[in-house]
Amino acid sequence: MALLEIKDLTVRFYTQEGVVTAVDNLSYQIKRGEKFGVVGESGAGKSVTALSLMRLIDSPGRIESGEILFKGQNILDMTEKEVRSLRGNEISMIFQDAQTALNPVYTVGEQISEAMRHHLGYSNEEARERSIQLLDQVGIPEAETRYSDYPHEFSGGMQQRAVIAMALSCDPDLLLCDEPTTALDVTIETQILDLIEELADEFDTAVQLITHDLGVVADICDRVMVMYAGKPVEKAPVEELYYDPKHPYTVGLMSSIPRVGDTRDRLQTIPGTMPDLVELPPGCSFHPRCPFAEDACTTTEPALIDIESSDEATVDSSRAAACLEYTDQLQNGLDYEVRVVDENTGSEMNPTQTGGSQNV
Ligand code: SF4
């Protein structure tokens, strides 16, 4: 049984401008100990999905339908008390801004201890000891002394380390990381990502990593789901996604990753922006930005198709993409070329795909 299985989840926000479908009929699963990346631009529905798992969608938002099965139990059917005992205990979340996750009037150590006293019934002394151990494990020097520091006495990177210690304090089975390094500079970003990966392995914790950056996913994740306008457009094991992306949006995201030794004057970007979720374009919602769009794309919504079987994808599908190419409804097909180049030698590692002109 999967640790987490999302089935046909739909989340809407009832705003003055109209009804926003932030997550539309979304299904996926995460296995125990697996690191799963969710990628897309702002407005793709990544964070709303994570908040739904914790049942933290507030008015005017509403989880309209679907199931969120955690260890086989539907979180949407649980009482508020049951959900509270799950949050911070079996499922923890790391937000992008550590500063807002920490309470400025309590010491860092107190905040880490609190969850263990509450969820695990630790005494004050036990919780203090374990918190100091965790601070040490996440790389805070002089952990015993720093236990009594207030959040403002920590740098941004140290605050995020403290938040990770807090998230792992109750040994959760699932860690939701929502853009955990966005507020940090690049060198600290690498350290924090390494730390999340290392601790997730050590604690045997599954990770759902939400990011707009495919480069971050490559470092950590086993599998990836790319989202666009509230829907999954591609799912794949991480290496397959990089060597052989199947959806034009994924190709666009990959073209815009900066690389060491890049000789391009400008990074390629995906033209346009995420559509207004109140009024999505008809047909494939990516069509106004897609270089391969044809007439059929403006009228027919592509289903998520299992690439191997050519049938509609299920949660078990290892490779899936939502493009009319996979239901033979495109006349010209997709025409791009993927070149993966070794940063050190400059040589091509594993060219794939059909002929064309777009280097990714
Ligand atoms: S269905 Fe059409 S518009 Fe959508 S991704 Fe495929 S080619 Fe592009």
Automatic annotation (TrEMBL):
<keyword id="KW-0472">Membrane</keyword>
<keyword id="KW-0547">Nucleotide-binding</keyword>
<dbReference type="InterPro" id="IPR003593">
    <property type="entry name" value="AAA+_ATPase"/>
</dbReference>
<dbReference type="Pfam" id="PF08352">
    <property type="entry name" value="oligo_HPY"/>
</dbReference>
<feature type="domain" description="ABC transporter">
    <location>
        <begin position="4"/>
        <end position="254"/>
    </location>
</feature>
<dbReference type="InterPro" id="IPR027417">
    <property type="entry name" value="P-loop_NTPase"/>
</dbReference>
<dbReference type="GO" id="GO:0005886">
    <property type="term" value="C:plasma membrane"/>
</dbReference>
<dbReference type="GO" id="GO:0015833">
    <property type="term" value="P:peptide transport"/>
</dbReference>
<protein>
    <submittedName>
        <fullName>ABC transporter ATP-binding protein</fullName>
    </submittedName>
</protein>
<dbReference type="Pfam" id="PF00005">
    <property type="entry name" value="ABC_tran"/>
</dbReference>
<keyword id="KW-0067">ATP-binding</keyword>
<dbReference type="GO" id="GO:0005524">
    <property type="term" value="F:ATP binding"/>
</dbReference>
<dbReference type="GO" id="GO:0016887">
    <property type="term" value="F:ATP hydrolysis activity"/>
</dbReference>
<keyword id="KW-1003">Cell membrane</keyword>
<dbReference type="InterPro" id="IPR017871">
    <property type="entry name" value="ABC_transporter-like_CS"/>
</dbReference>
<dbReference type="InterPro" id="IPR013563">
    <property type="entry name" value="Oligopep_ABC_C"/>
</dbReference>
<dbReference type="InterPro" id="IPR003439">
    <property type="entry name" value="ABC_transporter-like_ATP-bd"/>
</dbReference>
<dbReference type="InterPro" id="IPR050388">
    <property type="entry name" value="ABC_Ni/Peptide_Import"/>
</dbReference>
<keyword id="KW-0813">Transport</keyword>
